[in-house]
Specification:
The complex is a heterodimer of chains A (104) and B (447). Chain A is mainly alpha-helical. Chain A contains 4 helices and no strands. Chain A is 62% helix and 0% strand. In chain A, helix 2 (50-59) packs across helix 4 (90-103) and helix 3 (72-85) runs antiparallel to helix 4. Chain A starts with a helix and ends with a helix. The relative contact order of chain A is 0.10. Chain B is α+β, with helices and mostly antiparallel strands and 447 residues long. In chain B, strands 1-2-3-4-5-6-7-10-11-12-13-14-15-18-19-20 form a 16-stranded antiparallel β-barrel. In chain B, strand 16 (392-393) and strand 17 (399-400) form a beta hairpin. The radius of gyration of chain B is 38 Å and the shape is elongated. The two termini of chain B are 58 Å apart. The chains are: A mainly alpha (104), B alpha+beta (447). The interface between A and B is large, with 61 and 76 residues.
Chain lengths: 104, 447
């Protein structure tokens, strides 16, 4: 009969192996990648641009929705909801909304 | 200009004709001279040239590309004006229907395999720039057994999960009231919709053996304050709070005695729950938070029981060029302390408190920077979740509670940013009963 601790250690090992293999297989199968915008490290005072704010704030929970998915009026309602649900400041709400409207 | 040219041409033709007629009328002359002929020919050539020029100008005046551009400009103007009207028009038109849904298949050890489906529409109504109404339902299929006949029954379960109004006081503060998503930890307020949760099911501490509130009825306030390059967000609330379960001993029927029921919104006594959360983002990729809730959840007439809930949460998300993708690490841990009380279970008085704790740790990797579209749409996940619960032994020897841990692996494929296919397998390990290892397949979508 398998020892519980042995099973637990094996499962942890499988988990680490799973993550490592996922990363290695993906890197091995892919071609050289186009550079994607890098998030600000926040190591120095930095005034966030609207695009940066949009990609960092929204992407923390969910994938970025395309700006053309909703009308400007609908985006206004959605961002009002996000201001309350995600605890955004008023300035963040306005900047992200302005970016979305300009991007469609 | 075009008309002027046409008139000129007409005059020229008439002139040429007039000259010819005059020559003909000239008494006694049947033929024109060489000089006259050359002059007429020259005039005719000029007329033909002018005619060609006019025809060329007419051809160049309007092309299909010009028409297409004008149409495109007009359509853009219409769209801009329509959006402008939408923005300034208040009231009923400012409604957005969002939410999420899912359908899936579960094959779990010890249970019948089953398909299931559910949808959770979220209706957002912006009354004006400061007021927002939020309403949500949770509609799902459910299977149960008739208590009298033992026959299986199939129902549709409809729960009201949100019904509140909020008001934006200023850039850093909003207030509101109603049935709202309790800001305790981050999973329920932010991560549980099926197109945001990368796994097909909830962690143990947020499922049937929940340690945390989902929605509660009361009043709330919250907001965020930037501090240099960092940010602090905060929430506070007063609600009816959870209710203490005093007699149930059947885990399949809900929380058992000594535990808290977060699904009943009514208040069974005069006391209210107070709580809040504070979160800190030292760098944009990292947020850490602490949550607390205190309540007296006993029914009126029962002994006074105090419940203290605490939680810590953390999330780190970063796009890393070296691994050509994005990693997302999430973790939450909850402590639930319910003070001692005496319960009558199976006609036997039993005195105990309920100290439980549990949480989850989840890691994901998405190769978001690779060129291959299929690989770019994949996401690989692993999650470990656990709950620690004291064991309660009833008079007939039945054991309630106990510890349980799971290790799950998942592969997600994102059809669109808000539609995801999930395949997952979870290894389960519990103190009592058979381990409930399970395979899941699910399609989650955001409306």
């Amino acid at each position: 009969m398998l020892n519980k601790k042995y099973v637990a250690r094996s499962l942890w090992g499988a988990a680490i192996l799973w993550i490592t293999l996922s990363v290695l297989v993906t890197i091995g199968c892919s071609n050289s990648a186009p550079q994607a915008p890098q998030a600000a490290t926040g190591s120095a005072p930095h005034e966030k641009g609207s695009a940066e704010l949009w990609s960092q704030t929204c992407a923390r929970c969910h994938n970025i929705r395309t700006p053309t998915e909703f009308s400007h009026g609908e985006w206004q309602v959605a961002m009002h909801h996000m201001r309350v649900r995600a605890n955004l400041t008023g300035e963040e709400q306005r900047k992200i909304l302005e970016f979305i409207k300009s991007a469609d | 200009m075009r008309r002027h040219s046409s008139v000129s041409v007409l005059l020229a033709i008439l002139l040429a004709g007039g000259v010819a007629v005059a020559q003909e009328a000239s008494p006694g002359k049947d033929y024109v001279t060489r000089e006259e002929y050359e002059k007429l020919k020259s005039q005719l050539d000029k007329v033909v040239q002018q005619l060609d020029q006019v025809q060329k100008e007419q051809k160049q005046a309007v092309t299909q590309a010009d028409v297409d551009k004008v149409v495109e400009d007009i359509q853009r103007d219409i769209k801009e004006n329509r959006n402008l009207v939408n923005e300034i028009h208040q009231g009923f038109n400012k409604v957005l229907i969002a939410g999420d849904g899912a359908f899936g298949f579960t094959a779990q050890h010890g249970s019948t395999t089953t398909f299931d489906a559910g949808i959770a529409p979220l209706i957002l109504w912006e009354l004006n720039d400061r007021l927002l109404v939020e309403m949500a339902l949770d509609i799902s299929t459910s299977n149960s057994t008739d208590a009298n006949t033992g026959d299986p029954t199939h129902d549709t379960t409809i729960d009201l999960v949100l019904a509140n109004i909020s008001y934006l006081v200023n850039d850093n503060l909003y207030v509101g009231g109603g049935l709202f998503a309790v800001p305790f930890g981050r999973y329920h307020p932010h991560f549980d919709p099926s197109w945001i949760n990368r796994f097909p099911d909830d962690p143990l501490v947020f499922g049937d053996r929940s340690l945390a509130p989902g929605s509660e009825v009361g009043i709330f306030a919250g907001g965020a304050v930037p501090i240099g390059s960092t940010k602090i967000n905060y929430n506070a609330y007063v609600t009816n709070g959870p209710n203490l379960v005093v007699s149930n001993t059947d885990p399949d029927a809900g929380p058992v005695a000594g535990n808290l029921d977060f699904t009943d919104y009514t208040d069974l006594n005069e006391n209210k729950a107070v709580g809040g959360r504070i979160g800190f983002q030292p760098i944009p990729e990292l947020e850490i938070g602490y949550s607390i809730q205190y309540s007296q959840p006993n029914p009126a007439g029962f002994q006074e029981v105090r419940a203290l809930l605490q939680a810590v949460d953390a999330q780190y998300r970063r796009q890393i060029d070296a691994i050509r993708g994005t990693i997302d690490l999430r973790a939450e841990w909850i402590w639930s302390n319910v003070s001692e009380a005496t319960y009558t279970l199976q006609n036997t008085p039993m005195t105990f408190g309920s100290d439980r704790n549990g949480g989850y740790l989840q890691a994901s990797y998405r190769p978001s920077q690779v060129e291959n579209k299929f690989l770019r749409s994949l996401e690989f996940l692993v999650r470990y979740d656990r709950i620690h619960e004291p064991t309660l032994v009833l008079a007939d020897g039945t054991k309630l509670g106990g510890n349980e841990g799971r290790l799950g692996f998942a592969i997600d494929y994102w059809l669109t940013p808000n539609v995801v296919l999930k395949l997952a397998y979870e290894f389960d390990d519990k103190d009592f009963g058979d381990n409930a290892n399970a395979f899941f397949a699910q399609c989650g979508f955001g409306l």
